[in-house]
Amino acid sequence: MITVISLGGSIVAPDGVDEGFLKDLVSLVRRLLKEDEKRRFIFVVGGGGPARAWQKAYRNVTSAAADEEADWIGIMATRLNAQLVKAVMGEWCREEVVTNPTQAGPLAGRVLVAAGWKPGFSSDYDAVILAERFQAAMVINLSNIEQVYTDDPRKNPDAKPIDNISWADFCAMVGDEWVPGKNVPFDPIASRHAAKIGLKVICAAGKNLPNLEKILSGEPFLGTTIG
Fold first, then answer.
1. Residue range 168-206, pLDDT digits in tens
2. The pTM is what?
């Protein structure tokens, strides 16, 4: 059983590295792997605070709009974060960080860590490709929001949390364009491909690890199911 988790960079490194979260995540993963010998994890790590800060600096210095250079800066931030996650997973992760999801596998260890691929695609898209490649039934998307809302709750007090939503309705919410550093629950390009292959995505709060364990155990959880 392979579980693909899109691990938001805002969870791993909102500004600096969240060492406490990483310790708790490693502890949970180790316990789950020991309890079930058939379980495997694939983590796809985002760029988080470093990506946004470095992209902002690039745009401020050059006055450039979103372009391929900004995308590459974000990709490199995902690779830094992913290398850290790989390292803390220790002996469970035997392979190098995956930077091309179309060439990943087979799994040598029980944990695989992936990062950004190339301009035009986010780490969410990489997670969808890996789920398709390894025939995973779903992607768990962990970020700094508990659920998808009908609107941005920080701007609209009437925004309501969504428990379940179809891909058609979700894609209508997030639009069609991917911009480096764009802050959406799940990126539009990844969403279109997930809808095409019939993949389920669960969006949940990344730092709520007891809730993640409920998702993995098939118990009632707090989050949004897309599909």
1. 999 998 887 766 556 678 889 899 999 999 999 999 999
2. 0.93
Q: Could you check whether the bond before residue 106 is cis, i.e. omega within 30 degrees of 0?
A: yes
Query: Nearest CA to 59 among 70, 51, 49, 68?
Result: 70
If you count them, how many residues does the chain have? 227
CA 166 remoteness from chain centre:
19
**Torsional sign, CA 37, 22, 72, 179:** positive
User: In the numeric block, which tokens belong to residue 173?
Assistant: 């919410």
At residue 19, does pLDDT exceed 60?
Answer: yes
Virtual CA dihedral for 226, 196, 138, 94, nearest 10 degrees? -140
Each residue of 108-122: pLDDT tens digit? Answer: 899 999 999 998 888
Q: Find all residues with CB under 8 Å of 90, minimum gap 6, and list them.
A: 26
Sheet strands (E) in 38-145: 40-45, 111-114, 138-143
146, 223 in Cβ contact below 8 A? yes
Q: Specify the 3-state DSSP secondary structure of 140.
A: strand
